[in-house]
């Protein structure tokens, strides 16, 4: 089992496609590991699909660190990438470096991801200089949803597409080992991918990117608030979970669960002694049964 690292991701450019999925806990990380996925993104989408917020802006550093630790415990081969949440890197360069470092030191991630183009180049350069691998993110940047006016396709004009290409090239030059392209026209993503020396990871950016990333809950049908156009569901586990839980609830209410196979027995003489012992009233002795 070869551990995925930032250099290994970079070396995949032009040789093979990269599969990246979000993960937010130990169980999801273990499942993604068993599937052989390359990278696990502890995305700030955690705010929406796990914590129930309307957008990604509300999630905190402490919450992101908490979930990054859990994912890192479950990932043996995959590269764990931690999303830097809103206002964890925008305020100052020292703040950006310190928070990125926490994801590696405390969260045991192998890299961080941050959103933005040329405006975050000072942060990217400083984080990389501190020895922390960085993935860039351009196109639809959810942390800018207020400025963008919603979750909309980006770079639809020639001018906007050229700006995005310039941003992506600048991020690669600043040291990003990969760049996420989100919600942009496929021809734009194809040209950016062709020109960049580092892998592109697409999400709603067409088939020509060097890799793809989707949200765990979207792929498996576990999030029903909305389904982006770029998502393909490979299972509808939400319906299966509801059906299973309904069956369990019915079984509890009818007394069918737990059955004889789900309970622990007691030796008849021990049961008789117990009933005899409490016949005159419950004991006030709080000592254990000898196993302490």
Describe the structure.
- The chain has 292 residues and is an alpha/beta fold.
- The chain contains 12 helices and 8 strands.
- It has helices at residues 6-11, 26-34, 46-49, 61-74, 93-105, 121-129, 145-148, 158-174, 186-195, 216-219, 237-254, 268-277, and strands at 18-22, 39-42, 79-83, 111-113, 134-139, 178-182, 200-203, 211-214.
- It has an 8-stranded parallel beta barrel, surrounded by 5 helices.
- Helix 2 links the parallel strand 1 and strand 2 (39-42).
- Helix 2 (26-34) packs across helix 4 and helix 5 crosses helix 6.
- The radius of gyration is 25 Å and the shape is elongated.
Strand content: 5-15%
Average pLDDT: 94
| Secondary-structure element pattern, one letter each | HEHEHHEHEHEHHEHEEHHH
Determine the structural class based on helices, strands and strand pairing.
alpha/beta
Contiguous low-pLDDT stretches (5 residues minimum) are none
Strand order of the largest sheet: 1-2-3-4-5-6-7-8
> Main beta sheet, described?
8 strands, parallel, barrel
C-alpha Rg (nearest Å): 25 Å
Distance between the termini: 42 Å
Which percent bin holds the helix content? Answer: 40-55%
The number of helical elements comes to: 12
> How many β strands by DSSP?
8
Global morphology: elongated
